[in-house]
Amino acid sequence: MTKFFVPHLRVGSDAEEAWSSYLDTSHATADDNARRLYSLTYEHEDSLYKVKVGEPRVRFRRRTGPRGGYIKDAPYSTSGTPTGTDVTAIVRAGNVIHVYSWGPSYGGWANPSFVGPDSITQSTYFEPVE
After folding, report:
1. Distance (Å, whole) CA 7 – CA 15
2. Residue in 116, 109, 105, 7 with CA at minimum distance from that of residue 52
3. Averaged over 10-35, what is the pLDDT?
4. Which of 21, 36, 66, 108 lies at 20 to 30 Å from 28 by C-alpha?
5. What is the 3-state secondary structure (H, E, C) of the chain?
6. Residue 26 in contact with residue 32, Cβ under 8 Å?
């Protein structure tokens, strides 16, 4: 497991303070049992996205036929394209996962963006904080 961190913190900032601010903006409460995700793989609009804290999202499109033709139930490409800015936190609060990005989003991503639990194919949590 990976130890919890928040990339791009200002000098003198604390990761736990940053985590608290993510909880505040996601409107998470103690009842939501908010958890710190390190990585996430999910499907959205016929693409597969791999998200990891400290890195930009990577989009994997479905393979196509000759000249870009549609193939029903085609597998995802094995090579992805980075999109947006570095992910700074992934918060699971209740039935919604909030994905926060660093600075302005240059890929059309809302900040935070929301991922529904039904679209997740894989997730990894940070090591528990003691």
Report:
1. 9
2. 7
3. 75
4. 108
5. CCCCCCCCCCCCCCHHHHHHHHHHHCCCCHHHCCEEEEEEEEEECCEEEEEEECCCEEEEEECCCHHHCCCCCCCECCCCEEECCCEEEEEEECCEEEEEECCCCCCCCCCCEEECHHHEEEEEECCCCC
6. no
- CA 67 from chain centre, in angstroms, equals 32
Cβ–Cβ contacts within 10 Å for residue 84, how many? 22
Chain segment 74-125, per-residue pLDDT in tens: 889 999 999 888 999 999 888 889 999 887 655 566 788 899 989 999 999 9
Tell me whether strands 35-44 and 47-52 are parallel, antiparallel or unpaired.
antiparallel
Single-letter residue type at 111:
N
CB-based contact 61:47 (threshold 8 Å): yes
Whether the bond between 104 and the residue before it is cis, its omega within 30 degrees of 0, is no
Max CA separation in the chain (angstroms): 54
Beta pairing partners, 40? 51, 123
